């Protein structure tokens, strides 16, 4: 019967007395640990999805919304921009830009977003192919890992898209996409996207299912003609761009190809600078905002703004958690103090039976520590279960995969702080117990 | 086995109590008699190292109690002195046999459940080994206290008023029990009491007078 066993027996003898303290402690720890888990995973997601993109250029509106929409795919677009406006960005020769990746949004399959873009996009997230290949022709898609898992789409499967983010909106049933590739998981947003070329998005939205057939009759149009006539008649441009590649029924995915369709629209352009520290690069976004009808925003800045907004809330929650932990430590202190008083004869007997003051001191400290450890375990369980529930909710709403079953190094710190709180709560009762005058106690009849 | 010399004890604000020298060998029994308030419990606590000696000396075996440090006194007491109090307290969280085994482990010995069980059998409470202390009668509790005091085969057993609350029949029985167990453990038995009934059974006695 060691001191540790004795401490344990004392605690389980009357668990109801300590229940309130332990639950409080568990709540405090749980809240702190939950905030850690949530912030960590949120930051992780945000950081992973930053993908070294320096600037997003899209339609005017809320810059944060534009970032959330085009980089994190959790919000609706601010609007579209005509290619003719974005043309300077898409030209290969732009002196500041290393990469310019066009995005066209607007459709989804079972709420998974279909993104019209080029092959640079999966490369941003270092997404490798698991099966098949990257899209090449119109209506070919390469899908992210989560899309494959959740929708059950396989290579060669065909599907039709629906408009917006809601799966129930009217389906574009004229055209069906075909899965030609599945990406490996990256942990980034690309996992929940369906990637295709930009032209496929236009084709779906043009809604002319018969266009493909029309192509053949109009393939006398030449390349140059389209460039000039295109911006005058939108419908015309659509048919022209189809017939231009009519023979192969294919767009080549390059930005140069987009430039041939000046009157089509895209949602945004993701930009990587050649050099971030270049003075002109620093002014680049502002120039766009001031001098064009487009809007430029830096993901890093907008996400920081978002952090700061969320930060106020998490900060308040953190203080609440600390307050709860403090109150629970106080409540453990009171419980131990009361139980120490009630057990003064017991403690005296333990001394009589040979335990020194240090052992009696340790007995009470151990009781505090055991309570703290139980509280920590309850709190950790609560936070991870809570995180898993939130993850389910977030997954349903935003398609973001959070998890409750990831453990952080910081949780060791939480354990450390819990143990310290346990010691603080028990040290005064422990000192009192150790200093008890056993002669006096035992002389009381 | 236990002897005192010139022991005095002074509580703050009162006159010192002067105790007569006592001596009790292994297997012997010593009765210390005295009316209420003459310092019987004080003497018992001095003998048991619960109260530290201010003047004079208490010798148990070959050790002088007053020369030991606080922690050493606790350990020495656990190993060499078994004490039965007038009101016996137990660790509530533990059952009967665990309370007995606690005495083994706190004395720094390895716990021996068999020894504890057979001792309880000898005291006729073997069947109560796994019961909760609070479910025991007064007499049973006292037997557990005796078991706890002698499980480590101490050099000295100190008993404070073990019989004063008992009727004649039970008084005789407890005394017989104490004698037997002390003898079995080879201990010196010192009984501190105001119960004069014991005088007839124990020849070796010291009477405390108020000073």
The proportion of residues in beta strands of chain B is 15-25%
Radius of gyration of chain A: 32 Å
Domain count of chain A, please report it. 2
End-to-end distance of chain A, in Å? 29 Å
Short descriptors:
heterodimer; A: 445 residues; alpha+beta; 2 domains; 11-stranded mixed sheet; two-stranded antiparallel sheet; 13 strands; 58% helix; B: 211 residues; alpha/beta; Rossmann fold; 5-stranded parallel sheet; 6 helices; globular
Walk me through what this model shows.
The complex is a heterodimer of chains A (about 450) and B (about 210). Chain A has helices at about 5-15, 15-50, 65-70, 85-90, 120-125, 145-150, 200-205, 210-215, 225-230, 235-245, 255-260, 280-290, 300-340, 345-350, 355-400, 410-435, 440-445; strands at about 55-60, 80, 95-110, 110-115, 130, 140-145, 160, 160-165, 175-185, 195, 265, 270-275, 295. Chain A is an alpha+beta fold and about 450 residues long. In chain A, strands 1, 3, 4, 5, 6, 7, 8, 9, 10, 12 and 13 form an eleven-stranded mixed β-sheet that branches. The two termini of chain A are about 30 Å apart. Mean pLDDT of chain A is about 80; it is low at about 210-250. With about 210 residues, chain B is of the alpha/beta class. Chain B has one domain (about 1-205): P-loop containing nucleotide triphosphate hydrolases (Rossmann fold), CATH 3.40.50.300. Chain B has helices at about 40-45, 70-80, 95-105, 115-120, 140-150, 170-185, and strands at about 1-10, 15-20, 25, 30-35, 55-60, 65, 80-85, 155-160, 190-195, 205. In chain B, α3 packs parallel to α5 (about 140-150). The model of chain B has no long low-confidence stretch (mean pLDDT about 90). Chains A and B meet through α1, α14, α15 and α17 of A and α1, α2 and α3 of B.
């Amino acid at each position: 019967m060691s001191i540790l066993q004795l401490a344990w027996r004392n605690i389980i003898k009357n668990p109801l007395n300590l229940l309130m303290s332990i639950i409080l402690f568990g709540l405090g720890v749980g809240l702190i640990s939950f905030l850690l888990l949530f912030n960590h995973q949120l930051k992780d997601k945000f950081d992973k999805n930053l993908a070294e993109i320096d600037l997003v250029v899209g339609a005017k509106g809320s810059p944060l919304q534009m970032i959330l929409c085009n980089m994190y795919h959790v919000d609706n677009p601010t609007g579209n921009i005509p290619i003719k406006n974005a043309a300077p960005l898409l030209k290969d020769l732009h002196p500041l830009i290393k990469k310019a990746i066009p995005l066209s949004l607007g459709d989804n399959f079972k709420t998974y977003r279909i993104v019209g873009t080029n092959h640079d996009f999966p490369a941003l997230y270092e997404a490798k192919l698991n099966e098949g290949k990257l899209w090449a022709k119109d209506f070919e898609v390469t899908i992210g890992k989560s899309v494959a898992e959740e929708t059950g789409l396989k290579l060669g499967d065909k599907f039709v898209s629906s408009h917006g983010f809601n799966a129930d909106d009217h389906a574009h049933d004229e055209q069906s996409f075909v899965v030609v590739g599945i990406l490996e998981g990256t942990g980034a947003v690309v996992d929940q996207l369906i990637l295709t070329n930009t032209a496929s998005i236009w084709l779906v939205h043009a809604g002319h299912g018969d266009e493909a057939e029309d192509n053949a009759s109009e393939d006398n149009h030449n390349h140059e003609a389209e460039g000039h006539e295109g911006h005058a008649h939108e419908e015309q441009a659509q048919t022209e761009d189809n017939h231009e590649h009519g023979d192969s029924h294919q767009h080549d995915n390059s930005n140069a190809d987009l430039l041939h369709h000046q009157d089509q629209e895209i949602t945004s352009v993701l930009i990587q600078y050649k050099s971030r520290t270049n003075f002109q690069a620093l002014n680049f976004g502002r120039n766009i905002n001031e001098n064009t009808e487009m809007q430029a925003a830096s993901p890093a800045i907008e996400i920081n703004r978002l952090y700061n907004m969320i930060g106020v809330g998490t900060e308040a929650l953190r203080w609440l958690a600390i307050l709860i932990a403090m109150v629970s430590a106080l409540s453990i202190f009171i419980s131990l103090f009361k139980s120490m008083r009630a057990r003064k004869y017991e403690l005296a007997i333990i001394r009589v039976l040979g335990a020194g003051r240090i052992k009696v001191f340790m007995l009470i400290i151990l009781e505090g520590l055991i309570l703290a450890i139980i509280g920590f375990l309850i709190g950790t369980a609560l936070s991870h279960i809570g995180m898993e529930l939130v993850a389910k909710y977030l997954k349903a709403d935003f398609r973001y995969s959070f998890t409750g079953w990831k453990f952080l190094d910081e949780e060791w710190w939480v354990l450390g702080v819990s143990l310290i709180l346990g010691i603080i709560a028990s040290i005064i009762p422990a000192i009192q117990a150790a200093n008890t005058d056993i002669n006096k106690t035992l002389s009381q009849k | 086995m236990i002897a005192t010399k010139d022991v005095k004890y002074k509580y703050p604000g009162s006159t010192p109590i002067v105790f007569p020298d006592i001596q009790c060998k292994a297997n012997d029994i010593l009765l210390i008699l005295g009316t209420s308030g003459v310092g019987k419990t004080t003497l018992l606590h001095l003998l048991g190292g619960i109260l530290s000696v201010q003047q004079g000396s208490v010798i148990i075996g070959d050790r002088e109690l007053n020369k030991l440090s606080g922690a050493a006194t606790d350990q020495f007491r656990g190993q060499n002195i078994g004490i039965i109090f007038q009101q016996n307290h137990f660790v509530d969280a533990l059952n009967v046999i665990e309370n007995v085994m606690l005495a083994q482990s706190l004395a720094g010995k390895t716990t021996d459940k068999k020894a504890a069980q057979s001792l309880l059998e000898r005291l006729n409470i073997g069947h109560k080994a796994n019961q909760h202390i609070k479910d025991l009668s007064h007499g049973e509790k006292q037997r557990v206290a005796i078991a706890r005091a002698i499980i480590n085969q101490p050099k000295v057993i100190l008993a404070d008023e073990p019989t004063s609350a008992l009727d004649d029949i039970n008084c005789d029985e407890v005394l017989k029990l104490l004698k037997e167990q002390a003898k079995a453990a080879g201990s010196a038995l010192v009984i501190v009491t105001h119960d004069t009934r014991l005088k007839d059974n124990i020849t070796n006695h010291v009477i405390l007078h108020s000073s």
